Amino acid sequence: MALATVVLSATATRAELPPWVYGEQQRQAPVVVRLRVRQAERAGDEARVSGEVLRVWRQPPALSLQSGQTLRLRYSLPPRQGPSVLGPSSLPLPRVGEIVTAWLQALPGPGPMFAPAAGGRSFGPSLESVREP
Fold first, then answer.
1. Interacting residues of 33 by C-beta distance below 8 A, sequence separation 6+
2. Is the Cβ–Cβ distance between 132 and 20 less than 8 Å?
């Protein structure tokens, strides 16, 4: 029986989900908006973000989002870890003033509150056209 030895280099190693998985999550997101980030803060392991809606591409009939409206987002941030983490891409905290496309879902409870709907690719470029090979 042969014994295999695996050597990991000291450089950053990252394995995450393939792009088509994020594309599927983006396609299934009930809300897609263009957002100008007005506030972004980390409170422990939670992100709190608010932003101005610049454009609405998709929303369920029950919502009436429109340009100029302020959206509030809340989501968990992963614990700070080194660069050699295996798993899905984590969602970063956006920068104040940044303009992002956001794939979101409404959270239950009082007041309009949203959460990312496409994991680590909930902000940024669209992967909606990427399909499973």
1. 53, 54, 55, 56, 57, 59, 65, 71, 101, 102, 104
2. yes
Which among 129, 103, 101, 100 is positioned nearest to 117, based on CA atoms? 103
Total domain count, the chain: 1
Residue range of the domain that includes 41: 19-77+92-121
Which segments of 57-97 does DSSP mark as H helices, in order?
Answer: none
- Residue 78's pLDDT is 74
* Token pair for 101: 């496309």
pTM of the model: 0.82
In a domain? residue 127: no
Contacts (Cβ under 8 Å, ≥6 apart) of 46: 74, 75, 76, 77
